[in-house]
Amino acid sequence: MVDIPHFELAILLVFIAAVVRGYTGFGFAAIAIAGMNLIWPPQISVPVVLMLDFVGTIGMIPRAWHDADKPITRRLFTGALFGIPLGLTILVQVPDTLLKLVISGSILLMTLLLRKPLRSQQEIPRLSLLMGGIAGAFTAAASIGGLPIVCYLLTTSLNTRAQRATLVLFLSAIGLLSLLLMMIAGLVGTELLLPALMLLLPTLVGMRLGHWAFERKTPQSFRPVALPILVLLSVSSLGFSTYHLV
Q1: Which of these, 20, 28, 29, 165, could form a disulfide with 143 (CB 3.0-4.6 Å)?
Q2: pLDDT score recorded for residue 1
Q3: Which residues of 93-126 are buried (b: 16+ CB within 10 A; e: fewer)?
Q4: d(CA 25, CA 206)
Q5: Count of C-beta atoms within a 10 Å radius of residue 184
Q6: Backbone angles phi, psi at 36, to 5 degrees
Q7: Whole-model pTM?
Q8: 224 versus 7: which is more confidently predicted?
């Protein structure tokens, strides 16, 4: 733990991110990564957040399986199979500071895209494949694959509950696949298990709290909940990364 400082800040970040994820179905990884960019290198934060995200959402999978749009989920996952290897290559090859800058900028850009309501339309199969590939690459490289999928699902005619369930199911699947490939590539070792285990309790408590709130008051839109936090953390991380890059 000597090489992983500011653990108390990491606990607060994952708790806030978990509450948002439990309520909206997305945002955990983006919020946690944007904050952890301030204290940890991506080669540590990305696998740790992926582990927490997957374990924390296991209890949400049965309900998500029932409510999710299965054809869209399948097409998204098929596309992700091609994007995940690209993301792993980026995670390994791109220097820490530059990768933090790209991650923070991507989070901010996608958050701004989510600000305005998007026109609903029928799902386009080929576009689902493409967006799945993009999400797979973002997940493996930066653990933020949820944001491009949110941007896409908000343009479909799915209701809020179906959007949330599709997100949970898809992100759980590609998160697990990314972790398995990271283990095979030697990017996830036993040294990351301890920080992941120590952050697991605040993650589970936060997700349970968010899910409790969702069941009692399903929102018409997730924007007012997640977007202000994402903007704040991504701007802070972007400024910090730019300072160290120059």
Answers
A1: 29
A2: 44
A3: ebeebebbbbbbebbbebbeebeeeeeeeebeee
A4: 12
A5: 10
A6: -70, -20
A7: 0.79
A8: 7
